[in-house]
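#struct-help
A.M.: can someone run this one for me? Single chain, 354 residues.
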Amino acid sequence: MAEENPDIELEERNDDGELYEHYRITVDKGQAMLRIDKYLMDHIQGASRNKIQNAAKAQCILVGGTPVKQNYRVKPLDVISVLLPNPPREIEITPEDIPLNIVYEDDDVLVVDKQPGLVVHPGFGNFDGTLLNALAFYYQGKTDKDGNPITPYLAHRIDKNTSGLIILAKNEMAQTVLAKQFFEHTIERKYNALVWGDFDEDDGTIIGNIGRSPKDRKVMTVFPEGSESGKHAVTHWHVKERFGYVTLVECVLETGRTHQIRAHMRHIGHPLFNDEAYGGDQILKGTTFSKYKQFVTNCFQLMPRQALHAVVLGFEHPTTHKHLHFESPYPEDFAAVVEKWRKYVASGKIIEED
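D.P.: on it. Structure tokens below:
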């Protein structure tokens, strides 16, 4: 098993927003020549022949940095790099009739514009009522071109209370190709966020390792770049609109860590508006006037979640290799709060109250 072999290092686990596992394996000195698909099945726990073959076809198996086919024969001291998509979870997915906004679908991929409040997959505390439960209902009785039941595979995740675009694969081969694109950071992802405070610059980049907080395992924290704690994370931001006490920013992800934008923005002193987990559900900027406090409270009630929306998703199609690009309009709650701030600024109340 991978965990028992000191020469196998699992470099990336599937506990982030991107769902893949990246292995680095050094072949033993005494290893006899053996087909690499057989070797990997023997050395990586849960790696089926089909999964290994898909990885080879997608050029996700490299020896010495060069992609190899499944019939390559391993040699002593070969250094093998393997990228595998997230293994299926051992949870039965019960079909549930939950509304879905499907913006694109073909034989290989599915793009969904996820509503806020919808968890992506079943897990602790959320065993039903998820996106996968909704898709199980949507695909109930449907088959692919070969007559097999359609089972969607996750390629990445977004938080329960984050709205916007998410891509799923409809077969293991497509899932493997998408996992490679996420690993190589070629997926185009842009988020819009309403954050507390104003910025001195119009653009910036946040670099800092992200890992679970030692004080609260439910939230993520930022560690210094180069630290042994957390994983390398990069977020680029650009100011779209300034409202004095809050700012609408566009965030471009270079990496896809859990809660990346939420943790990075808090780290630089700009928590997301109404982000309870990261301190944004308090009035952090503004006046002491009671009318202003009521205005912010009304905004919180209008959008009872963090102000984060996955607005752009772009990727290379796993089969046709064409670039697909999708954009999502703001959901009703996000649009309403942005408009309220726009009118608040236009009314001159910020100047009057300052």
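A.M.: thanks! The chain is about 20% helix and 30% strand.
D.P.: also worth noting: The chain has a mean pLDDT of 90.
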